[in-house]
Automatic annotation (TrEMBL):
PROSITE patterns hit by this protein: OMPR_PHOB (PS51755), RESPONSE_REGULATORY (PS50110)
GO MF: phosphorelay response regulator activity; transcription cis-regulatory region binding
Feature: DNA-binding region: 123-221
NCBIfam families: cztR_silR_copR (TIGR01387)
Name by which UniProt lists this protein: Response regulator
Keywords: DNA-binding, Phosphoprotein, Transcription, Transcription regulation, Two-component regulatory system
Modified residues (4-aspartylphosphate): 51
One Pfam family from the record: Response_reg
Record bears the keyword Nucleus: no
Length: 230
Protein backbone atom coordinates (compact mmCIF):
# COMPACT_ATOMS: atom_id res chain seq x y z
CA UNK A 1 0.00 0.00 0.00
CA UNK A 2 0.98 3.59 -0.59
CA UNK A 3 0.13 5.84 2.35
CA UNK A 4 0.21 9.58 3.02
CA UNK A 5 0.85 10.95 6.52
CA UNK A 6 -0.13 14.59 7.07
CA UNK A 7 1.25 15.44 10.50
CA UNK A 8 3.21 18.48 11.66
CA UNK A 9 4.62 17.03 14.87
CA UNK A 10 8.05 15.63 13.87
CA UNK A 11 8.22 12.92 16.53
CA UNK A 12 4.77 11.52 15.66
CA UNK A 13 5.40 11.75 11.91
CA UNK A 14 8.76 10.00 12.23
CA UNK A 15 7.31 7.28 14.44
CA UNK A 16 4.49 6.58 12.00
CA UNK A 17 6.66 6.75 8.88
CA UNK A 18 9.23 4.39 10.34
CA UNK A 19 6.69 1.91 11.68
CA UNK A 20 4.63 1.76 8.48
CA UNK A 21 7.73 1.51 6.29
CA UNK A 22 8.93 -1.42 8.41
CA UNK A 23 5.60 -3.09 7.65
CA UNK A 24 6.40 -2.83 3.94
CA UNK A 25 4.25 0.19 3.09
CA UNK A 26 5.38 3.07 0.89
CA UNK A 27 4.98 6.29 2.89
CA UNK A 28 4.87 9.96 1.86
CA UNK A 29 4.78 12.76 4.44
CA UNK A 30 3.60 16.38 4.55
CA UNK A 31 4.01 18.62 7.62
CA UNK A 32 1.32 21.17 6.75
CA UNK A 33 -2.18 21.22 5.35
CA UNK A 34 -1.39 22.98 2.07
CA UNK A 35 1.31 20.51 1.01
CA UNK A 36 -0.77 17.62 2.34
CA UNK A 37 -3.76 18.59 0.22
CA UNK A 38 -1.57 18.98 -2.87
CA UNK A 39 -0.11 15.49 -2.43
CA UNK A 40 -3.51 13.96 -1.67
CA UNK A 41 -5.10 15.51 -4.76
CA UNK A 42 -2.27 14.74 -7.17
CA UNK A 43 -1.38 11.17 -6.17
CA UNK A 44 -3.20 7.88 -5.70
CA UNK A 45 -2.97 6.71 -2.09
CA UNK A 46 -4.52 3.64 -0.53
CA UNK A 47 -5.12 5.61 2.68
CA UNK A 48 -4.28 8.88 4.42
CA UNK A 49 -3.44 9.49 8.09
CA UNK A 50 -4.49 13.10 8.78
CA UNK A 51 -3.91 15.22 11.87
CA UNK A 52 -6.59 17.80 12.63
CA UNK A 53 -4.33 20.57 13.97
CA UNK A 54 -2.11 21.60 11.05
CA UNK A 55 -0.43 24.85 9.94
CA UNK A 56 -1.58 26.44 6.71
CA UNK A 57 -4.87 24.55 6.55
CA UNK A 58 -6.39 22.47 9.32
CA UNK A 59 -7.39 18.86 8.87
CA UNK A 60 -11.12 19.56 8.70
CA UNK A 61 -10.70 22.08 5.87
CA UNK A 62 -8.38 19.69 4.08
CA UNK A 63 -10.84 16.83 4.50
CA UNK A 64 -13.76 18.84 3.12
CA UNK A 65 -11.75 19.98 0.09
CA UNK A 66 -10.42 16.48 -0.56
CA UNK A 67 -13.91 14.99 -0.55
CA UNK A 68 -15.02 17.25 -3.43
CA UNK A 69 -13.06 15.02 -5.82
CA UNK A 70 -11.34 12.18 -3.95
CA UNK A 71 -12.70 9.25 -1.92
CA UNK A 72 -9.34 8.09 -0.52
CA UNK A 73 -9.86 6.43 2.91
CA UNK A 74 -8.80 8.75 5.75
CA UNK A 75 -8.05 8.22 9.43
CA UNK A 76 -8.06 11.47 11.40
CA UNK A 77 -5.80 12.02 14.41
CA UNK A 78 -6.39 14.49 17.21
CA UNK A 79 -5.28 15.19 20.76
CA UNK A 80 -8.85 16.16 21.67
CA UNK A 81 -11.18 13.44 22.94
CA UNK A 82 -14.46 15.30 22.69
CA UNK A 83 -17.51 13.76 21.04
CA UNK A 84 -18.17 16.96 19.07
CA UNK A 85 -14.64 16.87 17.64
CA UNK A 86 -15.05 13.28 16.51
CA UNK A 87 -18.43 14.03 14.98
CA UNK A 88 -17.01 17.00 13.09
CA UNK A 89 -14.19 14.86 11.72
CA UNK A 90 -16.49 12.07 10.63
CA UNK A 91 -18.99 14.58 9.29
CA UNK A 92 -16.28 16.15 7.13
CA UNK A 93 -15.77 12.78 5.45
CA UNK A 94 -13.20 10.89 7.55
CA UNK A 95 -13.54 7.11 7.59
CA UNK A 96 -12.16 6.62 11.09
CA UNK A 97 -10.84 8.59 14.05
CA UNK A 98 -8.04 8.04 16.58
CA UNK A 99 -7.23 10.08 19.69
CA UNK A 100 -3.59 10.69 20.61
CA UNK A 101 -1.79 8.94 22.16
CA UNK A 102 -2.76 5.77 20.32
CA UNK A 103 -1.40 2.28 19.80
CA UNK A 104 0.52 1.76 16.56
CA UNK A 105 -0.99 -1.73 16.28
CA UNK A 106 -4.48 -0.24 16.53
CA UNK A 107 -3.68 2.31 13.82
CA UNK A 108 -2.33 -0.48 11.60
CA UNK A 109 -5.45 -2.59 12.10
CA UNK A 110 -7.73 0.36 11.36
CA UNK A 111 -5.77 1.25 8.23
CA UNK A 112 -6.17 -2.29 6.95
CA UNK A 113 -9.88 -2.22 7.77
CA UNK A 114 -10.68 1.04 5.94
CA UNK A 115 -8.70 -0.07 2.89
CA UNK A 116 -10.63 -3.37 2.80
CA UNK A 117 -13.91 -1.46 3.00
CA UNK A 118 -12.82 0.81 0.16
CA UNK A 119 -11.88 -2.17 -2.03
CA UNK A 120 -14.55 -4.78 -1.17
CA UNK A 121 -14.04 -6.85 -4.30
CA UNK A 122 -10.27 -7.20 -4.04
CA UNK A 123 -9.12 -10.62 -2.86
CA UNK A 124 -7.37 -10.63 0.49
CA UNK A 125 -6.09 -14.18 0.05
CA UNK A 126 -4.36 -15.64 -3.00
CA UNK A 127 -3.50 -19.25 -3.74
CA UNK A 128 -1.16 -20.42 -6.51
CA UNK A 129 -0.54 -24.14 -6.43
CA UNK A 130 0.49 -24.93 -2.85
CA UNK A 131 1.47 -21.30 -2.21
CA UNK A 132 -1.01 -19.45 0.03
CA UNK A 133 -0.75 -15.69 0.60
CA UNK A 134 -2.76 -13.74 3.18
CA UNK A 135 -2.49 -10.08 2.14
CA UNK A 136 -4.07 -8.75 5.34
CA UNK A 137 -2.02 -10.79 7.82
CA UNK A 138 1.01 -10.39 5.53
CA UNK A 139 1.72 -14.09 5.82
CA UNK A 140 2.73 -16.62 3.16
CA UNK A 141 2.99 -20.41 3.34
CA UNK A 142 4.08 -23.09 0.90
CA UNK A 143 2.35 -26.34 1.80
CA UNK A 144 2.90 -26.65 5.55
CA UNK A 145 6.00 -24.45 5.44
CA UNK A 146 5.76 -20.81 6.46
CA UNK A 147 7.88 -18.45 4.38
CA UNK A 148 10.08 -16.26 6.57
CA UNK A 149 9.96 -13.12 4.42
CA UNK A 150 11.14 -9.59 5.08
CA UNK A 151 8.66 -6.75 4.58
CA UNK A 152 10.04 -5.95 1.10
CA UNK A 153 10.14 -9.62 0.11
CA UNK A 154 6.48 -9.98 1.05
CA UNK A 155 5.61 -6.82 -0.88
CA UNK A 156 7.43 -8.21 -3.92
CA UNK A 157 5.62 -11.55 -3.63
CA UNK A 158 2.26 -9.79 -3.20
CA UNK A 159 2.87 -7.59 -6.26
CA UNK A 160 3.61 -10.65 -8.39
CA UNK A 161 0.69 -12.63 -6.94
CA UNK A 162 -1.84 -9.86 -7.53
CA UNK A 163 -0.91 -10.03 -11.21
CA UNK A 164 -0.40 -13.77 -11.40
CA UNK A 165 0.51 -15.06 -14.86
CA UNK A 166 1.35 -11.49 -15.97
CA UNK A 167 4.95 -10.57 -16.71
CA UNK A 168 6.13 -7.65 -14.55
CA UNK A 169 9.08 -5.64 -15.82
CA UNK A 170 11.83 -4.37 -13.54
CA UNK A 171 10.44 -0.85 -13.92
CA UNK A 172 6.97 -1.89 -12.78
CA UNK A 173 8.40 -3.85 -9.86
CA UNK A 174 10.60 -1.01 -8.60
CA UNK A 175 7.74 1.50 -8.81
CA UNK A 176 5.27 -0.90 -7.16
CA UNK A 177 7.47 -2.29 -4.39
CA UNK A 178 9.91 0.56 -3.70
CA UNK A 179 7.94 3.52 -5.10
CA UNK A 180 11.18 4.76 -6.64
CA UNK A 181 12.31 5.03 -10.24
CA UNK A 182 15.60 3.16 -10.04
CA UNK A 183 18.27 3.44 -12.71
CA UNK A 184 17.59 0.58 -15.13
CA UNK A 185 21.17 -0.64 -14.66
CA UNK A 186 20.72 -1.34 -10.96
CA UNK A 187 20.52 -4.95 -9.82
CA UNK A 188 18.23 -4.34 -6.84
CA UNK A 189 15.38 -6.26 -8.48
CA UNK A 190 17.58 -9.22 -9.40
CA UNK A 191 18.91 -9.39 -5.84
CA UNK A 192 15.40 -9.22 -4.34
CA UNK A 193 14.08 -11.86 -6.77
CA UNK A 194 16.98 -14.17 -5.96
CA UNK A 195 16.38 -13.88 -2.22
CA UNK A 196 12.63 -14.39 -2.60
CA UNK A 197 13.15 -17.42 -4.85
CA UNK A 198 15.53 -19.01 -2.33
CA UNK A 199 12.76 -18.90 0.29
CA UNK A 200 9.89 -19.69 -2.06
CA UNK A 201 11.34 -22.68 -3.89
CA UNK A 202 13.16 -25.37 -1.95
CA UNK A 203 14.86 -28.22 -3.86
CA UNK A 204 12.23 -30.59 -5.25
CA UNK A 205 9.39 -28.06 -5.07
CA UNK A 206 7.55 -26.94 -8.19
CA UNK A 207 8.90 -23.69 -9.63
CA UNK A 208 6.49 -20.78 -9.33
CA UNK A 209 8.66 -17.70 -9.87
CA UNK A 210 9.89 -17.55 -13.44
CA UNK A 211 12.31 -15.22 -15.24
CA UNK A 212 11.25 -14.19 -18.74
CA UNK A 213 14.45 -13.10 -20.43
CA UNK A 214 14.39 -9.51 -21.61
CA UNK A 215 10.92 -8.89 -20.19
CA UNK A 216 10.73 -9.45 -16.44
CA UNK A 217 9.28 -11.92 -13.95
CA UNK A 218 6.05 -13.86 -13.57
CA UNK A 219 4.50 -15.86 -10.73
CA UNK A 220 2.46 -18.80 -11.99
CA UNK A 221 2.02 -22.57 -11.83
CA UNK A 222 3.02 -24.09 -15.14
CA UNK A 223 1.49 -27.46 -15.92
CA UNK A 224 4.66 -28.97 -17.38
CA UNK A 225 6.68 -28.11 -14.27
CA UNK A 226 3.93 -29.31 -11.93
CA UNK A 227 3.98 -32.65 -13.81
CA UNK A 228 7.75 -32.92 -13.55
CA UNK A 229 7.65 -32.23 -9.82
CA UNK A 230 5.06 -34.95 -9.27
Amino acid sequence: MRLLIIEDEPKTAGYLSRGLSEQGYSVDHADNGVDGLRLAMNNDYDAIVLDIMLPGMDGLQLMQTLRTSRDTPVIMLTARDQVDDRLRGLGAGADDYLVKPFSFLELLARLQAIVRRARPHEATQIQIGDLFIDLVARRATRGSRRLNLTAKEFSLLAALARRRSQILSKTVITETVWDINFDTNTNVVEVAIRRLRSKLEYPGETKLLHTVRGMGYVLELREEEASEAS
